[in-house]
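job 3f2a | input accepted
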Amino acid sequence: MTRLFSFRRIGALLLGVVLASSVQAADKLKVAAIYPSPVGDVGWAFELDRGLKAIEAAFPGKVETSYVENVSEGPDAARIMNQMAARGAKMIILGSFGYMNDGLKLAKRRPDIKFIHASGYQVAKNFGNFQTRNYESAYLMGMASGYVTQSNTLGVVAAYAIPEVVGIINAFTMGAQSTNPEVNVKVVWLNAWFNPTKAQESARSLIAQQADVIFSLYQDTPSVVTVGEQEGVFVINTSSDMKKYAPNHLLGSMTISWGKYFVAQTQAVLNGNFKGSPFWGGVKDGAVGIGSLSDKLSSDQRAAIMATMADIGSGSFHPFNGPVIDQNGKERVAGGSAISDSDLLGINWLVRGVQTRIPN
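job 3f2a | predicted structure (360 res):
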């Protein structure tokens, strides 16, 4: 990734080289990204950055990339976005749900800049959004959790009670119930994407409540994973494979990959035919998967999980196939049908078996 340098005028020849370099740099598409947490070596921001690196690899000499990490949602993010625009970025990747409103305002002021936004729902001519169908991999890891739990209590350390997270918790719960109908799920809402200390405290609190599988849901560090390893309970995480942080107790990782999508969007910008649109990539797109399934699962159990994954990829199975009943006993999805994408994108209810409520 490139940086800006200042040069002294030390001669006509050198000045010519500098000017030529400036023209060359001006010809490159400047792609800038903003992340809500440090890049690190695993997690959400790490995977976004892998996608940015895929852009570099796909378009050598044609793009210039940069990023700013660990940016709080709100005024700080708005300031960084505007700085990126002022420095010539023509494509901006917004890596957090909370960047949406400020990003959309900038997009309306700057129609010459193309935006893609993580986890949002707004679309404009120059403003698209992208998500992964993490509920698909959550269902699979729920199956694994139902197989291994002894206490029948699963714990979730969740970021925010937004529809995406609520949908993942529901799919995880239903996956667990498919292999163990006695399962119940407890949730701690952190109201943070990045708070390692609070995440660890929450994980230990869930373990104290007899949870013997802990799900680290959008915690952008291995903090919860390391607690699982230390306390000797199974642990699951989102975004990256975190096996190295819990070699003995990682039940499996829900993985994502943005490279293919980011490259396609960059190509559209280069071609001049970018169109703001939603992308929701799943197993069939190679955007969602599972990694490092524990060898403590039996061969039959692993085979059942992988068979379900294949069915999800082919479209023959949907994790929200009805009947789906909520916490209050209300049927939300009728038998013989599956939830629609629009309903799932706005989901604001939890399924039967989740003991914790959505905060008001």
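job 3f2a | The radius of gyration is 22 Å.
job 3f2a | closed
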